[in-house]
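Data deposition worksheet. Section B asks for the primary sequence of the deposited chain exactly as it was used as input, without tags or linkers unless they were present during the calculation. Section C holds the resulting structure in C-alpha cell form. Section D is free text for depositor observations; keep each observation to a single sentence. Incomplete worksheets are returned to the depositor.
Section A, Depositor: J.P.
Section B:
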Amino acid sequence: MEAGDSIAGETRRDRERARSEERILAAAMELFARQGYQQTSMKDLAEKADMSVGKLYSCFPGKENIYRHILEKYLAEMHRRGDEACEPSDPPLEQLRRRLIAVIEHFKGHIDFLMIYHNESPLMFEGILRREIERNREIAADLFARAMERGDIGREDPFVLSAIFIGSIHELLHAFAELGDIAAFDGVPGIIDRVLIAPLMARATR
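Section C:
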C-alpha cells in the first residue's frame, strides 16, 4: 500500500466512495426538488453527478435508497441544530422560539430539501415522514404543556397547539420557498409570535 492510502483506518477507496456518494446525494437533491422523485431516473442522476450508471449503482442500490439517505441525513441535521440551540434551563417558550429559528436556518441553507420534504412523500417513505411529524409534535406539545404549568400561556390542548405550531411553520416556509422569497423566512418567528403565542400569553393566569 502506498503512503497516504490509509489514514486512521480509512483507505483511499473509502474516501473516493464517500466523495462519490456526496456527489450523488447533491445531484439527487437538486433533481428531486426540481423535477420530482417519480420523474427522476437513475440515468438522470448519473448524468447530473457526472458518472456512469454502473458507478451510481455501486454506491446506492436504487433511487429509493438515495431518497432515504437524503431524508435521514437532513432530518438528523435539523434535529441536531434544534437541540443545540436550546439549554434545558431555557423557559419553554424560549426553547420553542430557538428551535424554530434553528429550523428556519436549516431550511434556508437547504431549500432543495425543503421542497423535497413538502412535495415528495412516496409510500415507501411514509414511515420516516410520519415519525418526523410525530416527533416534532411531541417536542412542541411538551414545551407548550410546560409553558402552561408555569402560567406563561393560557390553557389549551397542547397537542392541538403543537399541530397548529408545526403545521403553520411548514406551510409558511413552503409558500415563501415557492415564491422564491427566502428572505421572508426570517419573518416567520414574528408571525408565529403575533398569531399564536401572543394571544396565548394574553390569556395567561399567573
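Section D:
The chain has two domains: 6-61, 71-202.
The mean pLDDT is 88.
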